[in-house]
Write a structure and sequence with these properties.
There is one protein chain. The chain has 138 residues and is mainly beta. It has one domain (2-132): mth639 domain like (Jelly Rolls). Helix content is 10%, strand content 34%. The longest helix has 7 residues, at 50-56.
C-alpha cells in the first residue's frame, strides 16, 4: 500500500536531528525544530487511511519512505509496530528508536534528518519548494 503526502519548504529548515525526521501540517517553524524537513503537509498521522494505519500497526510490516524534492530522492526504511497510536492532528515523525507517541509513524528507521543530502535541504529552505513524502508498507 502506498500513500503520498505533499509538503513545502521553509526558511528555518535545518535537518540536523540524529534520531528523527518530521513533516508537519503547521505553516510556521522555528530553528529549534531541527528534525522537520517540511511544513504545510497535506496529511498528519490522524489523516492516514484506516487500512494504512492497520498495516503500520503490524510489528512485521516493513515501511519504506521516499522523500522527493526537485531532482533528489531520499529513501528511509523503517518498521511498523502494534503499539502505534497514529492520532496526532498535525505531525508525522519517523524514528530511529522504538519510542512511540501519537506523532510516531514508524520505528527502527535506518536514516535520520541529519543524513539527508545538504543539496536537498538547501532547496527545502525556500518556502516555494514543494516535496513529496511517500509511505509504502510491505
Amino acid at each position: 500500500m502506498r500513500f503520498d503526502i505533499e509538503f513545502t519548504g521553509h526558511e528555518n529548515i535545518r535537518s540536523n536531528h540524529t534520531k528523527t525526521i518530521e513533516i508537519t501540517k503547521e505553516s510556521h517553524l522555528t530553528p529549534s525544530g531541527d528534525c522537520i524537513i517540511g511544513v504545510n503537509a497535506t496529511a498528519s498521522c490522524a489523516d492516514l487511511p484506516d487500512l494504512l494505519k492497520k498495516k503500520l500497526q503490524n510489528t512485521n510490516s516493513k515501511v519504506i519512505f521516499s522523500i522527493k524534492v526537485g531532482p533528489y530522492e531520499f529513501i528511509v526504511n523503517g518498521m511498523g509496530n502494534e503499539n502505534l497510536i497514529l492520532t496526532h492532528m498535525e505531525d508525522i515523525v519517523i524514528r530511529k528508536s522504538d519510542f512511540i507517541c501519537p506523532r510516531t509513524l514508524a520505528v527502527k528507521c535506518d536514516k535520520t534528518s541529519d543524513l539527508i543530502p545538504r543539496e536537498m535541504i538547501s532547496l527545502l529552505q525556500n518556502p516555494k519548494t514543494r516535496g513529496t513524502f511517500t509511505i509504502t508498507v510491505e
